[in-house]
Amino acid sequence: MWKKAVVCLAFLVVLSSSVFAVEYSTEYPSYVPISGGAYIEVQSTLGRGSLVFPNQYQNNTFGFSGSGLNLCNITYSTVSGYFYPASGSPVQVRFQRYSTLEYYYESTGSWGNEWRPVTTSAIYNTNVRFIDNTTLTRAQEGPIFDDGQRTMIPLVIVLLLVAVIGICLGFRRK
Question: What is the phi/psi pair of residue 76, to 5°?
């Protein structure tokens, strides 16, 4: 009988556990000289650094290209900002519409200036909400419960556990 109770308890715990997508840290990088804005601290082909954009690009702007963590603009507008490396000088960057990241390369030679591609491979800190309609776990989940509901979850779980144990013990007595 106790085996049934343990199985019931395990089943209840599995059911009450929510599956979430990745959760990125939101610690603002100390090496970025400005405060505020939409930021994404990444590892990229330019090294580790932070992409900083105006606040209007914090939601519903960025998704992913391919199956990795290469960022992509998923809007009809070009998004411009700066890449602040962990050490070094900032670089102007942009995401053209439905495109991946590029940085502005200033040439000192006769070739002139040009936009060059940048690939992102890791995300460390961000306040940006990514959109990802695939089954991959790259975008943060939106809040499923508000704070009031979230405080009730442990109480509901305890009540369900008591109910399951009571039912299992009730079957044993019959």
Answer: -85, -5
